[in-house]
Structures are given as C-alpha cells and as structure tokens.
Amino acid sequence: MTDFYLVTLILALLLALGTLFLLVLLRVLEERRDVADTRISWAVRVLQGHEDDPEALAAASRSDAGDRAGRQT
Questions:
Q1: Does this UniProt record's set of keywords contain Transmembrane (predicted)?
Q2: Comparing 55 with 72, which gets the higher pLDDT?
Q3: Which of 4, 11, 15, 55 has a Cα at 20 to 30 A from 21?
Q4: CA distances (Å), origin 47, targets 14, 56, 65
C-alpha cells in the first residue's frame, strides 16, 4: 500500500515540475516575441524614413512599451 502512495506522490511531483517548466517556457517565449516585435517595428520605421524624425521614434517607442505592458496581464 505504501508503494501506491509513493508512486502517486512521485507522479504528482512530476506533473507539478512539468507544469512549472511549461509556464517558464511560455514566459521566455513571450519575452522573445516582444523583443522581436520591437525590432521589427523599429526596422519598419527606419525603412519608412522615420529615422530622421526623433519625435516619431520617441512616439513609436512609447507605443511599443504600451503594447508590451498591455500583453502582460
């Protein structure tokens, strides 16, 4: 009977560790996506010719920060 409880405990711990691993992986991938989104938006602005307009770049960086803050719910 003790073996059953031990096996159940080990399985529960493995499930908890797997869940924790997936949550951390999801957070890391989300952060990488945010960085990629920011780099893409900067590249698009540069290609559109906004690199000469510091005010447009400042407004764009503020909107990027707002987008990232909105995703972290």
A1: yes
A2: 55
A3: 4
A4: 49, 13, 21
